[in-house]
Design brief:
Elements: H1 3-15, H2 36-46, E1 50-54, H3 59-67, E2 72-73, E3 92-95, E4 99-101, E5 106-109, H4 118-122, E6 126-132, E7 136-137, H5 140-146, E8 154-156, E9 161-163, E10 169-171, E11 178-184
Parallel strand pairs: 1-11, 2-3, 3-6, 4-7, 6-11
Antiparallel strand pairs: 4-5, 5-8, 9-10
Length: 185
């Protein structure tokens, strides 16, 4: 018998005859009186991301302004012509999101249309993400309810950053160094 099998056998013996335990799933949902767009923008800004809250009609012009002359990866399904697909030479990526969480300032990609592949969103140094106001939920339970658990999920809370033992912050180690977010109202 392998060590794994032995451990699982011991666990099985220990719980034999135990009744099923109901786990409550009545998580708090929603926040009373909060403006979710404002809260999300504030939290994303706290992470040192660049945030723009603008009317939907202004989004295409703002995208053009943010991208400038950068060579960008534009994933299939993103509403913008053209694209740059070479990870080695792209300056950044522009995506939509699946859902955004106001309480945590987190953007979730499920890599559906307009969201690119995981490598397209983690390798470039710059990420511009467009978030619609109706994609912003109060907390993690609401986000989980909107997501398909079978899809690959990337959770983004600000630009990539880490600190060494002396607490020196280093950005861009395991993802984009710069995160810019357009919130479309």
């Amino acid at each position: 018998m392998s060590a794994r099998e032995e451990i699982l056998a011991r666990i099985g013996k220990a719980v034999a005859g135990a009744g099923d335990v109901e786990i409550p799933r009545d998580y708090r949902r929603g926040r009373q009186g909060d403006d979710l767009v404002e809260l999300f923008a504030e939290r994303v800004d706290d992470y040192r991301a660049i945030v723009h809250v603008i009317p939907a009609a202004e989004v295409p012009d703002k995208i053009d302004e943010c991208l400038g002359e950068r060579h960008m990866i534009v994933p299939d399904g993103f509403d913008r012509p053209g694209g740059w697909s070479d990870l080695k030479t792209a300056d950044g990526v522009v995506t939509n999101c699946a859902v955004a969480i106001a309480e945590t300032g987190t953007i979730v990609l499920d890599h559906g249309p307009g969201q690119g592949t995981r490598s397209q969103t983690l390798v470039p140094d710059y990420h511009l993400c467009v978030v619609r106001a109706d994609q912003i939920v109060a907390g993690v339970p609401e986000a989980i309810a909107r997501l398909d658990p079978a899809r690959p999920l990337t959770w983004i809370s600000g630009p990539s950053a880490t600190s060494d033992i002396e607490l020196n912050r280093v950005e861009g180690v395991h993802g984009p160094r710069t995160l810019e977010v357009i919130i479309s109202t």
